[in-house]
Amino acid sequence: MSSIRSRLTWGLVATLAPLFVASGLALHATAKHDLDRRERDALLVKAMAVAGAVGFEDAVILVQAPARTSSGFARAKHPDYFFVLDKDGRVLTASPSAKDQDWQPPVSALVDSGAVRIDLPHGRPGMATIMTLAAGTDLEEEADEDPRVHDQLEAGLRIVIADDIGVIQEEIAGLDRGIAAIFGVALAIACVVVAVVLRKRLAPLDRMAAHAQSIDVDNLDRRFDRGALPNELEPIRDRLNDLLARLQESFARESRFNTAVAHELRTPIAELRTLAEVAQRWPDAQDHARVVKDVLAISERMQALVSTLLLLRRVETGREPTEAQSVRIPELISEVLQRRQAMALQRSLHVRKQVTEDLVVSTQPEMLELIADNWIANAFEYAPAGSTVDIAARREDLDFVLEVTNDAPRIDAADVDRLFEPFWRKDDSRSDDMHSGLGLPLTKSLATALGCKVSVSLQNTRLHMCLRGPA
To answer: For 147-165, how does the pLDDT look when each residue is reduced to its tens digit (9 = 90+)?
Structure first.
């Protein structure tokens, strides 16, 4: 695929070339028109000069052309021509150049007082005009004195002037070659200038490309320079820096996730291996029923961990079905509280419920129930014994809001942003075998899949978790 520089270069050249060609054609047409006009004017001047030089001697026409106009008629190389014709087109007299070459003009092709291109002897290009001879004072006097002259004038005489325009056409050809050479050089210079200017102006893009090529998984902390850039590149630079920041965080989170998974699985695997080694070394001393029970419990914890990880990945990649149904929020909250009632009673927790009775939302019921169950169970387990847990659900405009609030004296402001990190625990009190540290991250992914937003804040010592989504 061609580069932006080459595309711009060829695009500009393709734009300039027709402009140069059009300019050259315009100059050619202008010069040709001007030379043609000058030649037509010259023909008219010569015709009038010849007409003024027509005279008679013994009723024979004579032409004494002025010296300033007769030089071309006597020229040996590429001469001009004049003829005086009678009414029938017979030549009565002609210039010496025409007599020498025994050539007559194509009278039928000529137009009175109009210039026409013709072929001269030896194939030379020419231009000719014809005009009727008007009787002047001198001719009228001669006609009065000689009836033969009077008859010729009465019958009508015409004058034909033919000029050799080969030199003019050579001048036009030379002009065309000059125009072609000038515009060819100009186009070449324009190409060089365009290439140089584009190289200079596209240098920031080249630097960005070189910087992008130098970034790999080992140096995602590198950012694109925030120096002066064209306005068109600034949004791209900012977007790339933002993407790099998120990619770096994603890689770091993935690394922590993989490390945490290995750590979480290492303990139960080590327990299984210990049970197996002990049972193998002292087979008679083991209570096989207890060993089987321990192995089953460890396997169930590992299975729950793997199942939660698979569900988390399916939700994050959009492969978990989210078919919406009508869900009555009061009934959903009541079912979760009934399921977790024993935990609340065991820790003497006081539950305050503020749920709008007729609140119905369209969502995926299993995912929403899993979010509510996890948040309520988390509040019941980590709230101080004897404290109050608030559960609220209501409609706000076109959204519904679900809130769970509990005392959390062990959580500080720095911990809030890490609550939804996989496997994160505040301290050893959360590091028992019953918790994998995936519950809250799973609920955030589920909320995203449902089109909802999750927010968490610490109000004094109370942890407030909020789910907001379209009703």
So the answer is: 666 666 666 778 888 888 8
What is the helix (H) or strand (E) element at residue 6, kind and residue range?
helix 4-52
Bridge partners of 55, per DSSP, are 62
Closest CA to 468 of 453, 447, 457, 449: 453
Average pLDDT value for residue range 400-416:
87
Kindly write down the DSSP assignment for every residue of 217-274, as one continuous string: TT-TT-----S---TTTHHHHHHHHHHHHHHHHHHHHHHHHHHHHHHHHHHHHHHHHH
**Residue for token digits 């100009």?**
186
CA distances (Å), 413 to each of 239, 280, 431, 444, 466, in order? Answer: 30, 50, 21, 19, 16
Up-side HSE of residue 108: CA atoms within 13 Å toward CB? 0
pTM of the model: 0.45
Pure H helices in 348-438: 365-382, 413-416
Contact 128, 105 (CB under 8 A): yes
pLDDT at residue 41 tops 60: yes
Say if residue 391's pLDDT is above 90.
Answer: yes
Long-range contacts of 305-313 (CB under 8 A, 24+ apart): 305/264, 305/265, 305/436, 305/438, 308/436, 308/438, 308/439, 308/442, 309/261, 309/438, 311/442, 312/422, 312/438, 312/441, 312/442, 312/445
The values of phi and psi at residue 431, to 5°, are -100, 35
Number of C-beta neighbours around residue 217 at 10 A: 8
C-alpha 116/C-alpha 43 separation (Å) is 11
CA 107 – CA 170 distance, rounded (Å): 26
- List phi, psi (to 5°) of 316: -65, -30
Strands 60-63 and 350-355: unpaired
